[in-house]
Design goal:
With about 450 residues, the protein is α+β, with helices and mostly antiparallel strands. It is built from ten helices and 18 strands. The strands form three sheets. Strands 1, 2, 3, 4, 5, 6 and 7 form a seven-stranded mixed sheet that branches. A five-stranded mixed barrel has the order 8-13-14-16-18. A four-stranded antiparallel sheet has the order 11-10-9-12, with helices on one face. A hairpin with a 4-residue loop joins β13 and β14. α1 packs across α2. The longest helix has 16 residues.
Length: about 450
């Protein structure tokens, strides 16, 4: 694994050799991955990689070159390539401030306990044990990844950032020969919090319940969205609702709504990299410290995520949410949704007649200004009557707006999971939502 000393040596080599103001971003990872399908492990992969991204600046011009060859000659060749490109480029129209006189940010959270508890042999034993409890007609598929990461950033003025961390990501699908399936997808930031048998049990229960599904008409239903379904909704809410570039261009569903209600008072979500249950990053890719950003507070929209360019246009300071020197606005990627006071079972018991949604597949944006999203349900859609699951339902397509969905939340679960998002991880509960709009149904026989 790339050490902090070596990361800083690379940054020093580049910045001291450059003829221009230069920033360096290093992303390194060491990964152990076990893939399985048809109840068999079919692949074990161990990878180690590191990429150095060099950006050189001359006024409004910037040239960008990356390399994953880390000997000094290759690194200096990459720097030379960037410097040669610079005179040939057109001005970007963006002027970037040179960071100076800032205290270092260093977070060292590598956890080698993942290797002792969930190394290759332990992952294999866990998969084998899960397969052995499956009854005839069921199969296990998925992936189990243990990852250690290092991010480092530095510039010509001696500003330095470094963070290391570890996590495990588990995807599990249990499939029945009838076509029914169950799915689970979780991230774990400590080795002892991962219980593979429980992850599989959750998916297996859905595959059992999902047999003999019936077709129902699309329409308006009260629903319980389990955490994986909420995770997709939250990811799009943060991306469309909080990104300053979308606000600047008038494309956000929350444009002009700071301080106004956009959700139920039961909904509070914060971009919080300091929460130990998410794999957060303490600085952004322009080198600024990431701020904890209150996106929605008890239903009111509060937080717009900025990079340096949108912050300059708005006359405010960056919130430290840049993904690089692209002027794309800020992107929150560690959303923590406050837990509620009901169990997941309580959410279901509160449905007179409605649907339990396990997760969504291929959620996408229909209309960003309206915040309208669409997706199919997948791996478990169930009819609920008088607070009890009475059977499985064939998949439906929903089309509805973020604000309408969030305003109709009438209960939130106390249980939460950490799940992967677009660029990071979110900590999300389940939610009960009134009047959820389904606009179509699958035509595929399941």
């Amino acid at each position: 694994m790339l050490s902090k000393n070596r990361a800083y040596e690379i940054i020093d080599l580049i910045t001291k050799s450059s003829r221009f103001y230069t920033t360096v971003t290093i992303a390194a990872n060491e990964t152990g991955l076990t893939r399985y399908a048809h109840s068999e492990i079919h692949q074990n992969v161990a990878t180690e990689d590191a990429e150095v991204n060099i950006v050189v600046f001359d006024g409004e011009k910037l040239a960008n070159v990356s390399t994953n060859v880390l000997d000094d000659d290759a690194i200096l060749a990459a720097l030379n390539s960037a410097e040669l490109k610079l005179p040939l480029l057109q001005p970007s129209g963006m002027a970037f401030e040179e960071l100076k006189d800032l205290a270092p940010i260093e977070v060292e959270d590598l956890d080698l306990g993942f290797e002792s508890k969930w190394g290759i042999s332990q992952r294999a034993k866990a998969v084998k044990a899960a397969v052995e409890v499956l009854e005839d007609g069921f199969e296990l598929a998925g992936a189990f990844e243990v990852k250690h990461t290092v991010y480092a950033w530095g510039n010509s003025h001696g500003v330095r950032r470094y963070q290391s961390g570890s996590n495990a990501h588990v995807e599990v699908m249990v499939l029945h020969e009838s076509g029914a399936s169950g799915f689970n997808d979780c991230v774990f930031t400590t080795p002892d919090s991962l219980h593979f048998d429980e992850i599989v049990k959750f998916a297996l229960e859905k595959a059992i319940l999902g047999q003999n599904s019936i077709s129902i008409e699309p329409g308006v239903y009260d629903v319980v969205l389990e955490p994986l379904a909420v995770n997709d909704l939250v990811s799009y809410t943060a991306y469309l609702g909080s990104n300053a570039k979308y606000h600047e261009d008038g494309l956000s569903p929350f444009t002009g709504k700071v301080g106004k209600a956009v959700a139920s008072p039961l909904v509070t979500m914060t971009d919080d990299h300091t929460n130990k249950e998410v794999s957060g990053l303490a600085f952004d890719f322009e080198g600024y410290e990431r701020q904890v950003l209150n996106v929605i507070d008890k239903g009111e929209f509060k937080g717009i995520a900025h990079d340096t360019q949108t912050a300059k246009h708005a006359g405010v300071s960056t919130t430290g949410h840049s993904m690089g020197y692209k002027g794309e606005g800020g992107i929150p990627f560690n959303i923590v949704v406050d837990k509620g006071n009901q169990t997941g079972s309580d959410l279901i018991k509160g449905l007179k007649r409605g649907l339990l949604v396990s997760r969504f597949h291929y959620m996408n944006v229909v209309d960003p200004i309206a915040g309208q999203l669409t997706a199919l349900t997948r791996d478990g859609l169930f009819l609920v009557e008088d607070g009890k699951i009475v059977g499985a339902v064939k998949n439906l397509r929903f089309t509805d707006s973020i604000e309408r969905i969030l305003k109709n939340v009438d209960a939130v679960s106390e249980e939460r999971i950490t799940a992967p998002s677009f660029f990071g991880t979110n900590l999300v509960p389940g939610m009960r939502v009134k009047d959820f709009v389904f606009t179509g149904r699958t035509t595929i026989e399941e």
